[in-house]
Sequence to fold (255 residues):
Amino acid sequence: MSEDRQVTLGGGEVEEDEPMTDDFGEELDENATKGGYNRYDVSSLLQKAVRRSDEECAAWAAWELTRSGYAWNLWDRLALYVVEDLRAGADIALLIERYERLATERWEGDSWEGRLCGIHAALAAARATSTREATYADGYFERVAEERAAAREEGREPEYDFPVGDLEPGGRHDVIFDQHTYDGKRMGRDGRYFTVHGARVGPTGESAVGERWRRRSLDLAERTYSDAELDHALAPVAPDERWDEPAVSDSAERD
Fold:
């Protein structure tokens, strides 16, 4: 056998550089799929199918891309959809990544196993909760930044502002200024302040076991906390007043 020929799994010999043909026996044009479609169109269909939760179209698009030699395109696009079109959460991202690793590290992308991995990943994406909230957030915050800059130059108040405002001590988010910030240190907010105010979670609060561990840990700490401070530190943040931090009695004897 000459050096430019290879043996297929079925035992027959084919030219190593033999062109791929479509379902009709015709040589594939650049960016064409075996079904006679343009891969960019199939890729766009895949994204819209994921966005609209159309499982069948998503599965077909994944199959068409992988069998046509564009498995790399499929995985590239699915990675984008995870951050552009699906609700925030780690499960779907990890699942799609796992399928990609199986398809690219264990099997060939256009093999039977590779095609199944692609279909599984596309179905998982289509079944996930779809949203473009991250995309909208990125565009909105960018436009707000432009509006704030324009308002300052024109000497007026901006029509929209960032959700944090000016982010200064004494403002709505005053609690963020603790021992971890320059302003917080200047204000004398040490570890006590962070423990009682800055480390609170909500609005569901700590789990029962988490609260027990936290309370016992503080009981064993060198710094002494009053009962009021301990109760406040472990109290869930109010859902309608997430940034409010009332003064709390520290009548316990300090270090």
About this structure: The chain has a mean pLDDT of 86. The first helix runs from residue 39 to 51. The two ends are 87 Å apart (CA to CA). Residues 75 and 100 are 7 Å apart (CA to CA).
